Amino acid sequence: MKKFYALLILALGCMSYSYAQVTVSGAVLSDLEKIPVPGVSVYIKGEPKGAVTTDFDGNFKIKANQNEGVLVFSYVGFKTKEVSFSGNQKLDVLLTEEVSTLNEVVVVGYGIQKRSDVTGAIASVKSENFNKGVVANAGQLIQGKVAGVNVTAASGEPGASQDIIIRGVGSLRSGTTPLYVVDGFALDNSNNGVASNPLNFINPQDIESIEVLKDASASAIYGSRAANGVIVITTKKGSKGRTQINLSMTSGFSTLANKVDVFSADEFRKQVAAVNGTLLDGGANTDWQDELTRTGVSQNVNFSMSGGTEKSTYAASLGVDNQEGVLRNSDLKRYSGRLNLNQKALNDKFNVAFNLTATKLDNSRPDARGIVGNMLTMNPTDAVYVNGEPNVNLSNDILNPLISERIYSDETNNNRILANIAPSYEFIKGLTYKFNLGVDYSMSERDIQVLPYTSATNTTLGSLNNIVTNNNNILYENTLTYNFSTQVHNFTVLAGQSYQKIQVSQKGYNLSGFPDNGVEPKNQIETASERTTQASYAVENELQSFFGRLNYGYDNKYLLTATMRADGSSKFGKNNKYGYFPSVALGWNITKEDFLNDSETVNNLKLRASWGQTGSQEIPSKITKASYTESNTGNDTYPLDPSAIDLGGYPYGSIYTRLANPNIQWEVSTQTNIGLDFSLFNNRLSGTVDYFNKVSENILLEVAPVDPIQPTSKYWTNIPNMEIQNNGIEIALDYSSDKTKDFSYSIGGNISFTDNKVENSPYKILTTGGAQGGGQSGATINGVLNGQPIGSFYMLDFTGIGPDGLNQFADTNNDGVIQDNDRIVAGSALPDYIYAFYLNFKYKNFDLGVNFNGAGGNKIYNHVAMTSFNRGQLANSFNTTDRASEFLNEASTNSNTVSTRYLEDGSFLRLNNATLGYNISPKTIGLDNVMDNLRLTLTAQNLFVITKYSGYDPEINTGTSVGDIQSFGIDYFSYPRSRTVLLGLNVAF
């Protein structure tokens, strides 16, 4: 009997073993196009840990521990599907795509919404549509991708700072920087000690989507920090039932994209003789633009993992990015790590989201302005090397730039952690409380040093400038959200409170006079012989906020959004601590009406209208409070000691450096918007059209007092009645062909027209850009004038060279004398329109995508030409372009006066990037059991630019501010842009 039971148990075991070997396989296709869907998560219901993913051809194979069960198929953009199986079976599964982008979820302030429910002007760019190539920060990802958003890099330097202008420049003092929100955490726009772009700390490959909140309805929930718009960055999260490992590697090669056409050695010899100059002929033939640039090599490696269950999901990544610029000693190295977790408990009522980003950033920067100046002006007959060593006997006693490169360094090390944890609990159905605690900590140390150097003609003592910066940003938020709906009514109510404290401190010192002993100055600070200068500061700012929002929908046709935020900032005086920022928006889903409900042509038609106010608090700290210093000069002291014989014996007196002004108010931007969203022909053609009008008031500036008898030369105040007006039109269109064909394509683009104007300014001109060097230092180039756009060029109108060989200018007021009052407004640095378009093609496993962007109607002041490309420079054996010989009768002593002579057209069209990709099916190379997908890419950036501008690049934004008012459109020896070719490999496991 015992033997019988033993045999029975053995038989049952064999049966169970046979059931464990059940294998289900098959293919997953899209239901409409009948094309394979790779990357679909397939798992047995209740056992998500055993998930597999479909390969490039949509095939899957999964083993089951039971003879029967249910398979779950899920993928982003498709409806999740469950299919029963029995025994060893082969299945053909069709997945249904989401109806359209109307069901796409977009991130808004403190929440998410379906695209069909959005009433504000919100643009969303997903990761698959980002710009490709060597990319250092989020701004580069969306350049040209959003109508009304002008992204302009300061230079061609790796990770260069950017101006991101959303719907025109709306402030003078606070610049154009929008508010950045990363995974629900609002970043601080103040100093973090990094000279390059502060957004470089975020690994672009970690970003899932970027939303741009353009109108006041969308951005007013952020109140006092949203006057320049809001950019919401969402990093990648894990998905339940889907485990994925990705490895991507790229290598790029960058070269100088464009050369300025300066004279060659032979041309130079002829031209110096032609102007009766003094030729210093070194006997060589040198192209200094070639000698002082290099092929920059860039590498990027990124490893990521993601997955999850019904209760928890995770996403983690590690990235290493090393970018070299085309100038030597120009490098950006980033080491990044990210961890995003989400955990559910208590019957899914309790949820915890955790986001962590940690970055180490090393940034080396050359003396770009000096190098670029040398590249363009050095004598091309001078030899670079003599007997294998850098030539130390150059024309005009110039220090060989190769030596300058060796002795100069500017290195910044930045460590940054951004983390937030957000637990939430659903008390009753639809009512959820959420607490968000976050910290953004940044510590930077920057060393700018020059090694001591001595030659027969040059002596450098050696110097060190050390700067240490700490930025600590802490955020506490409490929100309560209630969702409820009836048959036709749908409500979402949000109420919240926020507190944010930002502490910034900086310490620095300057030393000089170091011994030439082979030790870097930063490693022997005690040996400095020259006087030490040192400085430090610390500020603490607090922002206390209360906000609420109501979203209401009736029958999915009629939509209402109303928001209110009250912000209290420590930056403002006691009489105006709080600002209030309301908004309201309406939406009408016209396609839900009976007359369009069954239309086969019009798939979506929605009309939007909004009004709202936002503010700007990006002003210096403490400006509402009085400030003092000590002085014993002039009338600041009195000889209390009769024996005092000079000021050294006089006592110090206290004097004002800043007057108190407790009445300073917020800058307020009021914006109205009317928009239309549409989708036609089975959603193949879609687009948006928006009209906006934005008016900024209470403009805050530091100005000279009207009354000359004042204890300070300047004071901070709101300028009464002064306005900055921006209005314009934005249009975006996209079209996709039939994806069921072997060959498919999509095209699209956007264009926006913006009219910027300053009204009711009491000042003749507020200078925003001034000349530097060349005997013209401080001369106004552009500024703010009443009735004109910001950045208007205000200068004399050049009419030619007179019989005396000197400049001639238009006598605009006909008084017979050329003076400052003859200056004219000769255009603006701000473009009248910006545009972009793309073309994507796909043929079987090949795909090609190209992206163009451009601007028009703007001017650029070529400060390089004014300073360097003139007859006097050429006569003294400095290189120039043919500008120097444009007028045969021009005198070599003619001055380089600020005028329209150096004002050029800044319009351009750029092929921003192009990517050719090939997807290799792992099955064809016998690796289908190892990986899910293998992709090769070839990307080219900045392939060509069509422009009339004679400088390195028309995308200019290196102007320095004057009196803290931002400058635009002046080329001060900008770091040249590169052309890059990038090879990429992506493997999905």
From TrEMBL:
Q: Which residues cross the membrane?
A: none
What does UniProt give as the signal peptide span?
1-20
Q: Where in the cell is it found?
A: Cell outer membrane
The TonB-dependent receptor plug domain is annotated at 115-230
Name the major location.
membrane
Q: Does the keyword GTP-binding apply?
A: no
Q: What is this protein called?
A: SusC/RagA family TonB-linked outer membrane protein
Query: What NCBIfam families does the record tag this protein with?
Result: OMP_RagA_SusC, SusC_RagA_signa
Please give the organism.
Answer: Flavobacterium hydrocarbonoxydans
Membrane topology designation:
Multi-pass membrane protein
